[in-house]
Amino acid sequence: MNLIAIRRRIWRPIYAKTQPIIKSFRRWRISKFSQSETEAEQSERFRVLGLDWRESRKGVENLLGKDLDIFSHRSEHYELLFGISKRDKPKKILEIGTATGEFSVFLATIFPDAKVHTIDLSRLDNRFWNATSDLVTTNDWAVSKTDLEERDARLSSFSNIEFRELNSLALTFQESEKYDLIWVDGDHTYPVVSVDIANALRLLEVGGTLVADDIYEVAQRRRESGNQESYETLVQFQKAGFIHFNLVLKRLFPEPYYNRRSQKFIAVATRKNN
Ligand SMILES: C[S@@+](CC[C@H](N)C(=O)[O-])C[C@H]1O[C@@H](n2cnc3c(N)ncnc32)[C@H](O)[C@@H]1O
Question: pLDDT by residue (tens digit) across 114-141?
Fold first, then answer.
């Protein structure tokens, strides 16, 4: 018997006994989740930022309809940016990570007077269309020609969107143009995400807003899309007096492995005068 077979023999009965316990613990944890309390918490987090969550939710639903698919990509970044569109009037916006372009189009719609610059990796890059480069080991994630044609058509139907195939790391050397609002949503893993945040802060006007996706406050055992380093990077910039930041909840329902400690956030930072 080889090593793998021996391991399987040992682990299978242990796994069979522990799985039901783990599952019922997970069910118990989810049963403690309260939708109304979570919405109240989100409203308060928005209020601290001078935003109205209920109005933002209504605004997003008017534009896109209700989101009934709990696995959809649509998260609270839609409500957050909608809320910001009611508070601020940015002239120039940068999105790091275009993907399908749906969110770029959303930004161009809610900020009709702004120029939206959006960048993504080259279509030939094997990490293209994925936010977690360290999880890409096969070509399973391959994007079809139709996906790309749809994305390009979507982006070109808005005259206030400018798309470039550009690795965000190139921002370090190529860019000096300033923005009023930057949405950091490219590679969510370390170190790229920390470089993206640092570059975004360099390119942000004083008083401008940086929004960064998939922030965890605590170390995660399960590594999904996002990590603790984004949070720690923001904390260091805050300590150095460059920014002040707050967090809003990323989703208002329990994700598959829900646990208050593994709650994901979206960060909103204001660039201070220094
Ligand atoms: C989560 S998706 C972006 C989703 C989109 N911003 C939205 O709000 O729906 C992440 C995107 O970042 C892109 N990306 C990953 N690393 C990047 C890098 N170094 N530079 C630019 N884009 C990158 C991926 O190709 C992918 O399309």
Answer: 999 999 999 888 888 877 655 444 445 5
Q: Looking at residue 274, what is its pLDDT?
A: 67
Mutate-to-test residue for ligand 1 from 120, 190, 192, highest number of ligand atoms within 8 A of CB = 120
Residue range 61-66: average pLDDT? 96
Q: Where are the domains of the chain?
A: 19-130+138-271
| Predicted TM-score (pTM) of this structure | 0.87
Looking at the chain, the number of H-run helices and the number of E-run strands are: 9, 7
Average pLDDT for the chain: 88
**AA letter at 85:** S
Residues in contact with 196: Cβ distance below 8 Å, sequence separation at least 6, in sequence order: 96, 168, 171, 184, 186, 187
Q: CA 62, 64, 69: angle at the middle one, nearest 5?
A: 120
Q: Using alpha carbons only, how large is the chain's radius of gyration in Å? A: 20
Alpha-helical (H) ranges within the chain are 3-31, 35-48, 53-64, 77-87, 102-110, 145-156, 171-174, 192-203, 228-239
CA of 186 to the centre of ligand 1 (A): 3
Class of domain 19-130+138-271: alpha beta
Question: In angstroms, how far is CA 251 from the centroid of its own chain?
Answer: 11
Q: What is the CA(68)–ligand 1 centre distance, in A? A: 24
